[in-house]
Amino acid sequence: MQVINPATEEIIKDLTEDTQTSIAQKLNQLKKGQALWSQKTIDERLEIIIRFGGLVKANADELAEILTKETGKPITQSKGEVTGSLNRIEHLKSNAKKWLSSEKIASGEVIESITYEPLGVIANISAWNFPYNVGYNVFLYALVAGNAVLYKPSEYASLTGLKFKELLHQAGVPKDVFETVIGAGSVGQHLLEADLDGYYFTGSHKTGVHIATTVAHRLVPVQLELGGKDPLYVMDDVQDINQAAINAAEGAFYNNGQSCCAVERIYVDERIYDEFVAHFVAEVKTYKIGDPMDESTFTGPLTRAQQIDIILNQINEAKSKGAEVILGGDRPDSKGYYLNPTVLTQVTHNMGLMKEESFGPIIGIQKVSTDKEALTLMNDTPYGLTAAVYSSDENRARKLLDQLNVGTVYWNCCDRVSPNTPWSGRKNSGLGSTLSYQGIRSFTQPKSYQMRGL
Ligand code: NAD
User: Fold this and answer.
1) Whole-model pTM?
2) How do the domains of the chain map onto residue ranges?
């Protein structure tokens, strides 16, 4: 398998893909390793994960460079992810023991308690856009809970995945407790036929549904963190229109729009629409597009060449239905999978751009006249990951946020994930939760003890 740098289109590395046989061997080893790993105390397992965090910190520059070279993520954003994702380890440090320890529920004649046992060996099939954040949400939490992990990094972030393995082993996770599977979807398919004790997936809705239906007959836990079409609504009472535009632009264009919770569509009250759009475009024009290894670059190439056509098709379809491209809409004349940041107005929900995940540097800004109209449009999507409202009035914002069918709502912020609250999608955005105490328990199975003394 060839690893290609999306900024230069050069081959960086040749890797050997896993096969059905190598996966079976790894799984066999992991089953043995998990039996011993689960007998360690939570504190012992945590200590190893904390050591892993220290190694990541010590090697942050090298790790960020690897991430940038294989995904095209601008280097400052790669550094931000490598160090920022360590907050998952802080969360585990403060909370894992509390939520994984056994609980005494009743102490009458029959003593009743619950223990939280690991599942066994779980598959973590992952995405490339934030491999640290979404990887940690699964494999670090699963390991602390006493599971072994068969981690399949995305084929677009394999070098990062191999680094996770190296550093986890160096930190003290036994070799037969964490293993990687290298390859694309056809290799991932072998995992669905193997005897794993749970499937934790981050990726597209299409692959998520395929995984869930393929393994359904096995009756093991399946958790899906999928895509989104996240809306942001700016009310007419917003305190600072320029600041709202700056935040919205960053939410839409950070990591080239390749975030599951990127702002994918914007609604603005008609009374402030023109002013908002002017500020928004002015802000996007300041983004430097270019070499992702350059510290001053904000917009690098897309990670996958094939996404360019998907986005250009959305632009062309929207234009044919009356949308106006007021910025970008084309590709710079250079090597690499680049696309200029694109802003469209005169958009409607008859256009794919406002309904289907774009996962790139493109945004439609639609005018609305009431909160009710905004709410209807925000909920008009098969997805349900996040939604944001900008307003100076918390009650007015909350009234709307309460009626949105999504897993996370934001007031005066957007495109953010906190380890303290559950990360979960509704409808086509997923099933189950990572992070928070729900995420700590996601990798366990409860056992109830009912004990009557003689
Ligand atoms: P993808 O579905 O193409 O691939 C995800 C993973 O699944 C990869 O490792 C891939 O090799 C593997 N895969 C593909 N076919 C498979 C099969 N038949 N069997 C087993 N494994 C298979 O998604 P992607 O392009 O890597 O990720 C982008 C998507 O992920 C976007 O939709 C994005 O919104 C979503 N995402 C969601 C979250 C979240 O937390 N909700 C986070 C990051 C990304």
Assistant:
1) 0.97
2) 2-226+429-452, 230-411
